[in-house]
């Protein structure tokens, strides 16, 4: 804890040197990963087109909650008692999200999301009263959080597609408000601490990658340690290891240093499908490992496995495009297309699930080797 138990928010972006994520922030991230794990469990129980769409639909507002809180803590968190209490209250709402991701608890999910936004607004109220230079940004965020929370609460009184439409509207509103020019100017006026922000994104990504390891362990356990599961589980993990290598060797976060344009926003938003795809990939690997030797995957199962890997690779490609020079972006984007298409082709082959795993592992590992070699030579990807 800091020297004083109660401190007013401070602008943290101008601090020099490395700023490490606090223990409270790490705890906060782990609570979010619990919600992610719950979503993965829901998908395992319903590996179908409706299951995938429901998984994605619920994932985005949870991920946006993490983004909103992370950017606040990066700019203003002083880790005092007041902010810790707010953070712990936010953790309770995230636990509520995790406990209500099933279809029968939609009202509880909406209330948890709404309360989270209210707590973020309270944090920005503290900023508004103590930091005149950040008051305009605080006012904007309070307005967005209150409107979003109101939409989520209003959705409680609706049913079916109308409720889902309200959820989508609230999520889109938060994204759109971050992209309008006036909001980008307000955000650029209050600096971010780049090292700290990159560390938070990296930590969250690596924790979710760890979930894929857990999924493989569960797959082996469910298969009762049969020979095929034991042999092919490490091959499935090669997918996770390769994605780890690609992301942490190649992605730099350089667009965050230029807050004036759309590149930073695209860089941040590209992490949503990336993390979502990594989560779904763990489910796909678990299903493939658990599949009886020689048996092929159902189409929906194959699409969860290959489709999530393709989305993850495409998301990394978008990150690399934002980090490329303007004359290299088209080349960078086109260079990712062959491996993405190859992943789909391998995933949909009418062959044994274990053979699909081997093929996808070889493709991803090859891409990782190419990316790392090119990156270490200092050449554009």
List the helices and strands and how they pair.
Layout (H helix, E strand, L loop, with lengths): L22 H23 L3 H28 L4 H19 L6 H25 L4 H21 L4 H20 L1 H9 L4 H29 L4 H24 L12 H7 L1 H20 L8 H25 L5 H19 L5 H24 L5
Helix pairs in contact: 1-2, 1-3, 1-8, 1-11, 2-4, 2-6, 3-4, 4-5, 5-6, 8-9, 8-11, 9-11, 9-12, 9-14, 10-12, 11-12, 12-13, 13-14
Report on the structure:
Helix 1 runs parallel beside helix 8, helix 9 runs antiparallel to helix 11 and helix 9 runs parallel beside helix 12. It is globular and about 65 Å long. The chain has 381 residues and is mostly helical. The protein has 14 helices and no strands. It folds into two domains: 167 residues, no CATH class; 183 residues, no CATH class.
- The chain-level structural class is mainly alpha
Helix content class:
over 70%
- Spans of at least 5 consecutive residues whose pLDDT stays below 50 are none
Total discrete domains? 2
Q: What's the number of helices? A: 14
Instruction: Round the mean pLDDT to the nearest integer and report it.
Output: 86
- Strand fraction: under 5%
In short:
The protein is mainly α.
List keywords for this structure.
381 residues, globular, mainly alpha
